[in-house]
Design brief:
heterodimer, A: 133 residues, mainly beta, four-stranded mixed β-sheet, 2 helices, B: 130 residues, alpha+beta, three-stranded antiparallel β-sheet, 3 helices, 4 strands, elongated
Amino acid sequence: MTRTARGTYEQREGLTPAPTVRIAVGFGRDRVVALEATVDTGSDICVFPMESLRSVLPGEPETILEIRYLEGDSHNAPAYFPSITLGDLRETRVAVAVIDGGVPVLGRSLLNRLHLELDAGQNLVALKSSQSA
Amino acid sequence: METVAAKLPPKLVQELDSLIHRGRFPNRSEVIRVAVRRFLDDQSRATETASGFEAKVELHKALMARIARDPRYRGRYVAVHGSQVIDSDTNMDVLAKRALGRHETPIQIGLASPDGRLAVARVPGVRVRR
């Protein structure tokens, strides 16, 4: 059975509308936070703002990554492997870096596990479970 | 107490006065004292958090550099419990999915790099105001 999550194109920070989807990020029972995240196939991993996750983060990071931005700026950030639920889909142990500021972004640590359909003209944002992912 | 003169925009003064009218604070000085105290506490917490995180980064790098001395793990992603490597892989996602399902906790994931280099995540679409 194919599981699906649907989102919409939203005008957020950028010049043009971006595909966004509602997600829940979970660090175990009762440690879940809901976010509106932008689909970004250009990002290696998911990136979420610290202010959104502060109340649910475990004490110690599960890894530490160097986060590198377009301009070449970089800094070290704590990273975790929470579950991410979107629509009927639930993916576990997804690499997520937590940074100060920014907007929630779904990168390839999640997207590479899914079948992704985007059509701005139809306002179509669909993420589906992929048999081969 | 010292007197500190500060200019505030009228909108801010209005909001500040409305707190006094609602009986939340006795006067402007008290509102400003509480606000400044909270701001300084936040700043102090942020500084402590930042220095605590930097210490964790150094510990993580040292652990990974030590593990990288073992040629079996050098350049690979490793899952570590205590100071023991319990699993490794060339792919971080694959390793995390496998290793974090184990019974040991906590498990730390990292790149076993001899020079302490961290794994790099490129996020060109992320915009952060600095």
